[in-house]
Amino acid sequence: MRQPNDTKTSDLLGDSCDLAGPVPVKSTQREKAAERARRFRERHGVVAMTVNIKAETLAAFNEWAAAKGKNKAQVIERLIETQLLRKR
């Protein structure tokens, strides 16, 4: 680094040069979680589906899934494949 009173040494970078560069914006926890979820869905070919059903039906389904130890998403996916999309 050149001293202010040094007139013999040339300043190669000049005063306008900022070596650090711009500081990137830090992402929030929510953005990180959303990015992880997006990458997971992209990697596994999964999409979200929202449905409206009666509360009693959902409660019964939740009880059944808990008793059987099943994953609700996998159960619904299998029902759609075997009951609705099957070849007839």
Automatic annotation (TrEMBL):
Region Disordered, residue ranges: 1-32
Protein name (Swiss-Prot/TrEMBL): Ribbon-helix-helix protein, CopG family
